Input
Amino acid sequence: MPAASNNVQAITLKTTAYRSFTIDEAVSWVKRLCESKGCSPAVADSLAHATVAAQARDNEAVGFRHLADYLSGFSSGRIDQRAEPRISSSGAIVFKSDARGGIAQLGVDRCFDSLCHAAYENGMATFSQCNSFTSGELGDYTLRFAKAGLIVLAVANGPALVVVPGAKGKTYSTNPLSFAAPSADGIPLMFDQACSAAAFVNIARAASTGSELPDGWAVDQHGNGTRNALEALGGALLPFGGHRGANLMLMVEVLAAGLTGANWSLDSPAFHQGAQTPGCGLLILALAPDFFSSGFERRLASQLARLTQVGVHRPGWARQHAMADSEKDGISISVELLDALSSM
Output
């Protein structure tokens, strides 16, 4: 299994040992780990960059901890670790990818430059993908496109995890959506959120640490509200806002599964057990702002500054500053987690 480079040092914080990496060292460590599981260099590289970027933005739930789901998937056959996405196009602005049972990130990487060019030339472009493992950190995609000067909306689906008001059993995944837009101040506006009251990875993390859940996040197997994370894993998540959240889930489902040809959440195999790919869907819509309104980035920066002055939270600000800090100071991962990943 891969070992950290010689200049990686171990430190101790509150009785937990941590190992510090530069961003490049962390990417290399994850790449070597993935390749040791039989991943192609392309799959290993794509997943390593996405994993480390999430961790560097302090989005730990879809960083190194989520990497365990991929390693398990490689071993079980839920993820084809050497799958090369099948890319096609329809006209000048529609790019389609069949992930062929592989990771979602590689299809986006393969189409990134072409999609940006198409949006610059035509005002908009779309990316549609089916038949992949889960999307990972959805905000990673939107943030990358926003840094390239595009306004972006991304939606994704997955296995059914959520019970909505009036339904008999789980019907939708957490069905996340992410939005990002470039700003003249150099910090894109970005948010990335599940349509459920909480992301599944947060429930799983609470179960592993024995933490209680807030009210309204989940129900147990009998449909009763629960704050016990283990009971929630055996039950179902809840949408945020009741029927309003359920409506957004349906919208995401139509776009991410219906439009892409991916599995509906009801038909999607589990992402954490079994040997079948979940067959998830991902849709990305990119708009070139100058086709719609000149000076957009300057106007957005001014508006965001006004909103901040009156106390409005600016989504994505903290995570992007965390990335800047990580690029300067590196990232620290618990030795316990690194050892667990290496031994999988």
Remarks:
- Residues 1-13 have pLDDT under 50 and may be disordered.
- The first strand starts at residue 10 and ends at 13.
- The chain has eleven helices and 13 strands.
